[in-house]
Amino acid sequence: MIWFYCKRSLKDVLGHAILIFFPLVLIFFFDYLYRNVDIETGLALGGPSRITALTIGFALTFQIYGSAISFETLAEDVYGPMRNRLFASPIETRSLLLAVLVSSAIVSMVQTTIIMLFSRFVLGALYPRLPLIILILLISVVFNQLLGTVILLLSKGVKLANMVTMLYGSIAPMLAGLYFPLPKNTFFSFIQSYGTPMNLANSASLALMDDQVFQAVPALLALLVLTFVLLGILKPLSRGVQV
Amino acid sequence: MLLQVHEVIKRFGTTLALDCCNLSVEKGEVIGLLGPNGAGKTTCIRSLIGLVPIDEGSITVFGLKQDGKNKDIRRRIGYVTQEITIYEDMSARDNLAFFASLYKMTKAEIEVRIAEVAKIIGLEGRLNEKSKHYSGGMKRRLNIGCALMHNPELIIMDEPTVGIDPQSRSFILRFVKELAQKGVTVIYTSHYIEEVEAVASRILIMDSGHIIAEGTLAQLIARIQGDHIIEVEVRIGSEEKKKQLQGIPEVKEVVYTDNRYRIVVPGGIPILDKILLTLSDQSLVSINTKQPNLEDVFLTLTGKQLRDEVTS
User: Fold this and answer.
1) Distance of residue A88 Cα from the nearest chain B Cα, in angstroms
2) What is the ipTM for the molecules in this complex?
3) Å between A168 CA and nearest CA of chain B
């Protein structure tokens, strides 16, 4: 079943092309800009190179848009005519949800991996502590897929989920300082590190690559807590799907 | 008894969708379920499957109580939905395999069954094509095939021939007859009376949320056997004339649609002159008298045309 949903997700070639090529274009663009124009970057760089920080930042940003993979698939299945066929079978709602979420997380993680590999081998990005970075990116993928799904099940339609993820995907990278520098004060410094789940994943990844484990752990823990909160919300919501 | 619906009531807000609905189905029967739009057919079918919880009454399927949670019941039912519910970006093989996987079939079982079902639905050799490239009839057949993968004991087909070419329609009807020969129980709903006539061993007519008549085709026709049907086509008909016709004491029933009056009168009573006199100022186009068929039974019992409601 998971394989079927992965295969189904992969049919949206244009969607995947956008989610892979657009961040690469942005990484190129901002790297070029910061290299050639004398402007201050918004990235709080320590150890990681600018290209690495840009790659992590945009990979995380486009994971947010990638949450549509699960909620659009799910909406087609549980809020369209397909619903009757699926629920006429003995399938449990939670099995269906799990299959969609797992397959969407796999597809989204593949997108992230392609971006990272391209940055590594073409742009020269380096990823110290790679296994831990992958783990953080994976948690972020799961969080985003859960977020889209929870909004879908709460609103019973894709409209709100699309709106929220678009808004979140636009604001979070700004707050992470990906596009422009934020004011230098405690408040914005806090927001940049912990303001949104994307900022949490971003600052945890950058801190880990910079050997600042004590800075990474709180951000990672906060992201994990938020992920479990979404899982907790999803459980009762999934019960309401089949009735 | 394979299936029993007893005094079932289902409300959607203030609308009574099923109103003390009673029906029973024996193993091996092919039931034709007829009814105008809004009669409650789809709600009835969905209640049988457990997709719609009922408010009152009881439903027993395969001797098990249908409470909406009974997976054993669902495992043994194949539901052919009214809409084409296949994944059009996926191949027929992927679709068949996916729907089989919902019934916990093993990979090996699925492979064997795909070959069997592809033969039944006439899609061998085209299994690997994306179903969006199929014709409407082929999609309909795949829609049926997906419901057959797990070898169900009871197949419920909700309007399986809507919007398809005559060739695919006759294919589906032949297929339902073959299922009946194999002893599979089928519940078949359709707006096409001739389809129900062709496949059903017993016909149920539903209106206003309950079954208003049931029996074999011969039994149902016998209910109005003594009657004659007079069909009069005029150039300019009116509801007012319909009322005048209803006012003739010998007339049992008048249905008026599209400048046509369908008048049911007891056989042997010479009232054609009265009818012609009533309609004489409406420019008569044609007059027909005929023996009743299932369509006449339906019209007499429900007072509604069936075919005209297809698009609504």
Assistant:
1) 6
2) 0.82
3) 30
